[in-house]
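REVIEWER CHECKLIST
Item 1: Sequence provided? yes
Item 2: Single chain? yes
Item 3: Sequence as submitted:
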Amino acid sequence: MNPIDLVLVEDDPMVMEVNAGFIKKIGGFKICGIAKTGKKALEIIRELRPRLVILDIYLPDLSGIQILQEIRKLGIPTDIILITAAQDVETVQAGLRFGVVDYIIKPFKFERISSALNHYLTYAEQFKNRGELNQEDLDRLVKILPVTENQKSREREELPKGLREITLQQVYNFLKASKIGLSAEEVAIGAGLARVTARRYLEYLEKINRVTLETQYGSVGRPINKYKALL
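Item 4: Structure as written out by the authors:
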């Protein structure tokens, strides 16, 4: 597959450089444009119509949400990954309503953006040369899991105190992008969380049957719990 055209929008030069380095390290993408302001971002996106935009919300002139709204208003077929320090529910919901494919909260580690971009590569490949999709294909692509009635009733319950929906999805997506089971420590490093926090989310995901737990025994030391997403 040819590299995917990508526009990177970030007003901090140092963060821009770090993110560009991450993207080049992951591979599969070509940075065809960069912008440090919202107006410049819209100008580049209108002209280049990239497949993917990595967009910061806090810019000196326009907000990332305003840019996202304008892209949708113009009907430009561009996918968006939001990268931001904003964690308030209103901002997150606004991004999701306008169809972002992922939402990464700063500060993040390489493994988190790697997970997001590798998932997007898989997503793009699945759509290539496909005339139609069946339900199983669609469920996998839009991160929807078929659930049982028992699972539905559990998921209607409020999250346990201290857990947040967006972080829960972040942990699940990171696991889903991995082809092997991961320990709580590996998930914590990859998702940019404290180990105890990652374990709480993993235990809850196991409780609602979104992940499986397997205990692995080595030749020495204590057994290790490995978690794997149910696809």
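Item 5: Key structural point noted by reviewer: The chain has a mean pLDDT of 82.
Item 6: Recommendation: ____
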